[in-house]
């Protein structure tokens, strides 16, 4: 199965990844989540072989069977939509009717088949990300790596992008996407949460939620201390085992879980 084992990457004196493992089964979406600097992009770059690893192994298809959408979308700003397709398609060795029919299907599914002459730089953020996705998919890759495809995209376009991502998996690709949106990650088959280059949690979303130690509780008022966070109009907080929760216990969602795990880890003896 494609994936990586015990990956360690050092970048300019920083340990960007430390002992990270990820399985990438065909037909499944794996979501990599984590805050700024957690190591998400480095993981993608290590899978692509674009960054030197100092430990661990990577097992992925050959480069021509991988599709990659960088966080900047990969769309060429001074080329039109059609020109982007032709340019990227030719880099994959696609041309003529084969390229045209593949591109037509992808662009229509993405809902961006009506602006063939618009320049990349004149597309809205959501349209640009959707075109970037189509470009990464042109050659029907076996492994699709998407770096924050939905960041800065409006909620409707995010739903459409998610539909494209799941369709790619349904067609048999292994899909790995990084995201800062936990509602998206909750719908993936597997979530890998990174923190400071290490795996904070990994598994099916429900399994990850089940790993919270202690209690997550909800209350209307901030309970004070650093163990509380705002959720809508309420405050959630995490309490270690053996301590009285300040509010009513709730079943945590993925967001609560990752905050609680981070708090629990920060209180572990070093
Ligand atoms: N070229 C580099 N030289 C030195 N350190 C780097 C380099 N690239 C990344 N890093 C560091 O490696 C760590 C992981 O960075 P990475 O870009 O993978 O995180 P990320 O989770 O993708 O974050 P973001 O969402 O902010 O891009 C960070 O501490 C970052 O500062």
UniProtKB/TrEMBL annotation:
GO MF annotations, alphabetized: ATP binding
Record SMART domains: AAA (SM00382)
Record domain ABC transporter: where: 2-221
Keyword annotations of the record: ATP-binding, Nucleotide-binding
InterPro entries reported in the protein's UniProt record: AAA+_ATPase (IPR003593), ABC_transporter-like_ATP-bd (IPR003439), ABC_transporter-like_CS (IPR017871), P-loop_NTPase (IPR027417)
UniProt-annotated stretches for the region Disordered: 218-250
Superkingdom, natural source: Bacteria
The keyword GTP-binding appears for this protein: no
Stored PANTHER family: ABC TRANSPORTER G FAMILY MEMBER 20 ISOFORM X1 (PTHR43038:SF3), ATP-BINDING CASSETTE, SUB-FAMILY H, MEMBER 1 (PTHR43038)
Protein name, entry field: ABC transporter ATP-binding protein
Organism name: Isoptericola haloaureus
């Amino acid at each position: 199965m494609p994936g990586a084992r015990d990956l360690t990457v050092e970048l300019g004196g920083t340990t960007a990844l430390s002992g990270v493992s990820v399985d990438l089964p065909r037909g499944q979406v794996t979501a990599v989540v984590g805050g700024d600097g957690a190591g998400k992009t480095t993981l993608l770059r290590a899978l692509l072989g674009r960054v030197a690893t100092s430990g661990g192994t990577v097992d992925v298809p050959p480069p021509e069977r991988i599709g990659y959408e960088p966080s900047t979308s990969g769309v060429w700003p001074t080329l039109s939509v059609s020109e982007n397709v032709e340019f990227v398609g030719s880099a994959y060795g696609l041309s003529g009717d084969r390229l045209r029919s593949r591109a037509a299907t992808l662009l229509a599914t993405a809902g961006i088949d009506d602006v063939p002459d618009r320049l990349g730089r004149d597309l809205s953020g959501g349209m640009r990300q959707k075109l970037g996705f189509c470009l990464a998919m042109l050659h029907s890759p076996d492994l699709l790596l998407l770096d924050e495809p939905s960041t800065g995209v409006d909620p409707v376009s995010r739903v459409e992008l998610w539909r494209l991502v799941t369709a790619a998996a349904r067609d048999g690709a292994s899909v790995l996407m990084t995201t800062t949106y936990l509602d998206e990650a909750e719908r993936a088959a597997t979530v890998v949460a990174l923190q400071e280059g290490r795996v904070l949690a990994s598994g099916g979303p429900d399994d990850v939620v089940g790993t919270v130690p202690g209690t997550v509780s909800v209350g209307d008022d901030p309970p004070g201390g650093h163990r509380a966070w705002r959720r809508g109009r309420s405050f959630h907080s995490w309490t270690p085992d053996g301590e009285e929760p300040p509010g009513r216990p709730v079943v945590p969602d993925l967001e609560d879980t990752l905050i609680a795990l981070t708090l629990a880890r920060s209180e572990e003896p070093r």
